[in-house]
Specification:
With 364 residues, the protein is an alpha/beta fold. The protein folds into 2 domains: 9-47 and 288-356; 51-287, 3-Layer(aba) Sandwich (Aspartate Aminotransferase, domain 2), CATH 3.40.640. Helices cover 37% and strands 14% of the residues. The protein is built from 12 helices and 12 strands.
Length: 364
């Protein structure tokens, strides 16, 4: 009889404890002060929430009735459609499918378009969670690069190589985490054309879309001819990650079969809670007030950062939107050494660039 359980190879990830993590644990254990610049939980960031309105919207009599709808309740999907209309984007409720999180939405789309062992392609630098989400679905993750000139731009040669290698799904984030760069309308159009020509799906994660820091409207996916799937959710739009509601919006022609299959996947899980679906319409009315607070904070913080690095060997790279900023540091030490220095000397926690797969040193 075997004395050990055998685990799936999906979870065979290296989990080394790096020096920054060990130093952080020691600092916290010693009770020393810490300024955590990696904090991304909006509920801990001191924003003013209309708590009564948020909670009252959950206390609806309809929430006591369970009406399982694979794509989500019509009322909630109409609220999402209205959100897009406010952005100037026409998305019918029938082209929207609710999920419990954007991570779950990625999982659905991997299931929809990729068989085990198939490749997908994601940007680098970008969010490290992609690697784990792909692995959990048995999907191999290829990469395309973002290059920094006056702004971050898609390296289309690397994207084409990945698509030509058989990638079934291409991921994009706009604005990207952590670079804060929006895809331009031309970049989105070209990506959609390249994917459509190879039968690959294009997925655009817009969770930070509403947080434009620079002047002018943020580029949107409106007018793209090929099939595109947009992701978004309450975690960033309203700073309510605890409410667990996100969605997939299908744009472009010929999406009926994709939506039918997505509903089959969603019907297997039925993961979205009924009360949050009934509350969504009321919650989205709170969006302007909350987002005004966040955008003002982002612009103020960025101005302070730019002033702090002015005249120093550090360079604050251009940030167009989103919640994050990137510093290019002098290459006199490794970026993990920089992060360790900031933590031990100043009590400031930052993430070294390799966490996000920056090609070069040294970034934070």
């Amino acid at each position: 009889m075997a004395d050990k359980l055998r685990f799936s190879q999906r979870l065979e990830w290296d989990r080394p404890s790096n020096r920054v993590a060990r130093a952080l644990e020691a600092r916290r254990a010693a009770g020393k002060p810490l300024l955590d610049l990696t904090e991304s939980n909006p509920t801990r960031a001191g924003f003013r929430y209309e708590s009564d309105a948020v909670l009252e919207a959950l206390a609806r009599e309809e929430s006591m009735l369970y009406e399982p709808q694979p794509a989500g309740l019509r009322r909630a999907r109409e609220a999402v459609s209205a959100y897009y209309a406010q952005r100037g984007l026409a998305v019918e409720p029938d082209r929207i499918l609710l999920t419990a999180s954007t991570s779950e939405a990625y999982g659905y789309l991997f299931k929809l378009f990729a068989d085990p062992g198939d490749p997908a392609v994601a940007p680098k630098p970008s969010y490290p969670l992609f690697e784990f989400l792909a692995a959990l679905e048995g999907v191999r993750l290829l990469e395309y690069r973002l290059r920094y000139e006056d702004r971050w731009r898609v390296d289309f040669a690397s994207l084409e190589r990945a698509l030509d290698a058989g990638a079934r799904i291409a991921l994009a984030v706009t604005p990207n985490n952590p670079t804060g760069s929006y895809l331009s309308a031309d970049e989105m159009r070209r990506m959609a054309e390249l994917c459509a020509a190879r039968g690959a799906a294009l997925v655009i994660d817009e969770v930070f879309h509403d947080y434009r820091i620079e002047a002018g409207p943020a580029p949107t996916a409106g007018g793209i001819e090929g099939p595109v799937f947009l992701l978004n959710g309450l975690s960033k739009i309203l700073g309510l990650p605890q409410m667990k509601l996100a969605w997939i919006a299908a744009l472009g022609p010929g999406q009926e079969e994709a939506l039918r299959r997505l509903e089959l996947i969603a019907d297997t899980y039925l993961s979205v809670a009924t009360p949050v679906q009934h509350a969504l319409q009321e919650w989205l009315r709170l969006r302007p007030g909350f987002q005004a607070q966040v955008t003002a904070r982002l612009r103020s913080n960025l101005a302070r950062l730019q002033a702090a690095v002015g005249g120093s060997p550090c360079d604050a790279l251009r940030v167009e939107g989103g919640w994050y900023a990137v510093l290019r540091l002098p290459q006199v030490r490794a970026e993990e050494d920089w992060a360790l220095l900031f933590l031990e000397q100043d009590g400031v926690l930052v993430q070294p660039g390799y966490f996000f797969d920056f090609e070069e040193e040294a970034f934070a």
